[in-house]
């Protein structure tokens, strides 16, 4: 995974330690363990389906993880332009990845999952009301990807359950893009990467 990180972005001692940018954004900083990002115009992750193009220039702040895991993060952003998006990404390579988060579409904020294995698919649902940001969670284990969201960090309804390839190593971390707009300000906080939660599908805690 080609990557770089501005020298002035210090991750040591934060929950983002070990993360490196794939496609660095115009500006990024970490303040009190919160990652602040401003996106560039015409950035996205997408492969072929419906549109016919391949975009692989979205902003992805990734760390490597060996084997299965659960990752989650809290997100604040002022989504306003078509396809403004922010969430978590898991990536094996440029043809095999998943991104889970929120995306502005059809005049409203949607919770969105794009699963890509050669070609991308896309599933959405209207985002419920929230007061102070929201959380997304991805668990990958034993060839399965489970995506969840929360508006209170207590209840975690499921967004998606799907096959996802086993790999010896995954790149995992916050992701944001602005395919149509530019300058979306996003704050990522409470980022955690831990061993895979082995919970029943109907255990929403």
Explain what you see.
With 205 residues, the chain is mostly beta strands. The protein has one domain (20-192): Jelly Rolls (Sandwich), CATH 2.60.120.200. 0% of the residues lie in helices and 54% in strands. The protein is built from no helices and 17 strands. Strands 1, 6, 8, 9, 10, 11, 12 and 16 form an eight-stranded antiparallel sheet that branches. The mean pLDDT is 95.
Short précis:
By secondary structure, this protein is mainly β. The protein has strands at 20-22, 27-31, 34-38, 45-47, 54-56, 59-66, 69-77, 85-93, 96-105, 108-117, 119-120, 123-126, 134-141, 144-150, 158-163, 169-177, 185-194. The strands form 3 sheets. Strands 1, 6, 8, 9, 10, 11, 12 and 16 form an 8-stranded antiparallel sheet that branches.
Question: In terms of topology, how is this protein built?
Answer:
Elements: E1 20-22, E2 27-31, E3 34-38, E4 45-47, E5 54-56, E6 59-66, E7 69-77, E8 85-93, E9 96-105, E10 108-117, E11 119-120, E12 123-126, E13 134-141, E14 144-150, E15 158-163, E16 169-177, E17 185-194
Number of strands: 17
Would you tell me the structural class of the helices and strands? mainly beta
Order of helices and strands: EEEEEEEEEEEEEEEEE
- Number of continuous helical runs: 0
N- and C-termini, Cα separation:
33 Å
Radius of gyration using CA atoms only: 15 Å
CATH architecture, by name, is Sandwich
Structural descriptors:
single chain, 205 residues, mainly beta, Jelly Rolls, seven-stranded antiparallel beta sheet, 17 strands, 0% helix
């Amino acid at each position: 995974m080609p990557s770089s990180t501005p020298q002035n972005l210090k991750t040591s001692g934060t929950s983002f330690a070990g993360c490196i940018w794939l496609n660095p954004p115009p500006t990024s900083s970490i303040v009190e363990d919160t990652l602040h990002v401003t996106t560039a115009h015409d950035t996205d992750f997408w492969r072929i389906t419906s549109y016919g193009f391949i975009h692989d220039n979205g902003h992805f702040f990734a760390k490597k993880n060996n084997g299965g895991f659960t990752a989650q993060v809290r997100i604040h952003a002022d989504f306003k332009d078509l396809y403004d998006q922010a969430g978590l990404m898991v990536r094996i390579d440029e043809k095999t990845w998943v991104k889970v988060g929120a995306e502005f579409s059809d005049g409203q904020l949607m919770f969105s999952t794009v699963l890509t294995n050669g070609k991308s698919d896309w599933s959405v649902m209207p985002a419920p009301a929230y007061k102070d940001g929201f959380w997304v969670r991805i668990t990958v284990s034993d060839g399965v990807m489970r995506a969840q969201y929360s508006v209170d960090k207590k209840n975690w309804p499921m967004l998606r359950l799907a096959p996802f390839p086993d790999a010896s190593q995954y790149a995992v971390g916050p992701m944001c893009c602005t395919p149509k707009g530019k300058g979306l300000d996003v704050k990522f906080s409470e980022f955690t990467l831990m061993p895979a939660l082995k919970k029943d599908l109907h255990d929403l805690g």
